[in-house]
Amino acid sequence: MMLDDNGQRKLSGNPLSIAPMMERTDRHFRYFMRQITRRTLLYTEMITTAAILRGDRDKLLGFSPEEKPLSLQLGGDNPIELAECARIAEDRGYDEINLNVGCPSSRVKEGNFGACLMAQPEKVARAVEAMQKAVDLPVTVKHRIGIDDRDRYEDMANFVRIVSEAGCRRFTVHARKAWLQGLSPKENRTVPPLRYGDVHRLKQEFPHLFIEINGGITTLAEVREQLKSVDAVMIGRAAYDNPFLFAMVDRDIYGEKVTPPTRREVVESMLPYIDYWLKKSWKLHAISRHMLELFAGQAGSKAWKRYISENAHLPGADSQVLREALAKVLNSR
């Protein structure tokens, strides 16, 4: 286990990540994003402890080495089960364990995990402590600035203080509160106002913690501006709706001397991967659906999306569909 000068386990220090998103950040999307950015921290979809302990682990937890650095986001509230899942993840080669304390869906609430746990910081602390005792990996927490009427800055600061005292050093903060009743998960991503100032203040008052901000950030200019006040930025839907946004980050955010890939190069690098998974009985659309917005904002984007959408689900569809769609993109680069 790598420790810092204060005896705490070292974090990746990664300044940029793509948020865990249900039905989006599966292994195929992550591999696709790795053709665009090598350095950005990636997350799995949220996976519950019950699913891992009783389900198909190879399907749920499988990933390609190219996807790293990679964090597993867990959903659950039982410290024993969370610790066991953390051990399983460590054995499988994950780089980090993240506890979901931000999802506002009713299904998650009924299971007593996700955003409702913000009202139970001591319970979250016990879960974090159990996981940290079980593994050498960093254990991090993703949460909201508040829930329902518990949305004062002081409420969030108290939550972070209690959980950090259990050993958590990295907190990803969605800068919107969550209404657990009255708003859908989709509405909770847009309706409550963004309060970036609360997250900036959190970093000021907890300078020893690694604070990452999430919510409403869609451009690299906004990323750079946020990095003046916090340690890291997490981008969610914008990463899915405009994945090529990340083509410049290895050079411009991480300072690497690399030439950003072109969109054409990204497509061509995906073709062997697609062929590999089709031989394992996967369907083309399960992979190609993540690539539909690669040409977002470019001439020919509609033709690209239309051709893939109309052909990827057909019997026998293979990587040739992507080659033919690429030929329809005007001035593809």
TrEMBL record:
The active site is at C103 (proton donor). Keywords: Flavoprotein, FMN, NADP, Nucleotide-binding, Oxidoreductase, RNA-binding, tRNA processing, tRNA-binding. The keyword Oxidoreductase applies. Its EC number is 1.3.1.91. It catalyses: 5,6-dihydrouridine(20) in tRNA + NAD(+) = uridine(20) in tRNA + NADH + H(+); 5,6-dihydrouridine(20a) in tRNA + NADP(+) = uridine(20a) in tRNA + NADPH + H(+); 5,6-dihydrouridine(20) in tRNA + NADP(+) = uridine(20) in tRNA + NADPH + H(+); 5,6-dihydrouridine(20a) in tRNA + NAD(+) = uridine(20a) in tRNA + NADH + H(+). The record marks N100, K186, R189 as: Interacts with tRNA. FMN binds at P20, M21, M22, Q73, K142, H174, N214, G215, G216, G236, R237. It is an enzyme of class 1 (oxidoreductase). Belongs to the Dus family. DusA subfamily. This is tRNA-dihydrouridine(20/20a) synthase. It comes from Hydrococcus rivularis NIES-593.
